Here is the input.
Amino acid sequence: MRKIAVVTGASRGIGLAISKMLLKLNYTVYGICRNPNRCDFKDDHFHLNKGDLRDPKTIPDFLKTIPDQEKISLLVNNAGVAYFSPIEEMSPEKITEMIQVHVTAPILLTQALTRILKKNEGRIFFIGSVSGMEISPWGNVYGSLKAGLHHFARLLFDELRKYSVKVHLLIPDITKTEFYEHLNIEPDTDPKSYLLPEQIATIMKQILLDDSGLVIPEVVLKPELFKIKRKKYQS
Here is the structure.
C-alpha cells in the first residue's frame, strides 16, 4: 500500500525534486501550487492541484481534493516566496503575501493534519532558510518569517515526539531554483557555490529511510563555497 504525502510548492524547484524522490519511495504525492499547468512532470501517483497559499481559505478546499486523507503520513511545508527591499519601500501586499505563505499556511496545514499524522505516526518536514539564521540586508521581513517558521518547527518537534510524529527542519543555503526570479541577486556560475534541489531531496530521503529510532530534528545545508552575483540589467 502506497503512503500519501502532501507537498506545498510542488510544481518546481525543491518541491518538485522532493516529490520525484517520494514517488520513487512508493508514495502517492498530492502537491499544491498556484499554476499546475506550468509543471511538465507527469506521473500516475503525482497529483498537482491548484491552490493559493496566500489565501488561508484555500487550504480546506485543497485538502478536500485528497480522497484518502486518513492515509496521509507525510507533510512537507516547502512553498516560499521572497521580496527584498528596504522596509519602507516594500508594499503591504508583498509583506502580507510572505506572511501567509511562510507562516500562516504551514501552521494551518500542520494543524489540519496533525491528528491524522499522530494516528499514522507520520512525519512533518519544514524547508527553512539560512536567512532565518543570519542578518540579511533588505531581507528583514523574509528572514524574520523564516526564523519564525524555524521556531515553530522546533517547538512542534518537542510537542509531537511523544506521539511518534517526527518533525524535521531542513535549512538550506543558496539553492539554484527560480526562487531568485524576483530578486536582484542569483547563484554564482561556480557549481560549488550553490545547492541543487535534488541534493536537498537526497538528504530528506536519507532521513526518511532511517528507521533506527534516531531522529534528526534539524539540518543546515550549505554549498562548499560562498559566492553570489548581482544580476545585470540592460538599460
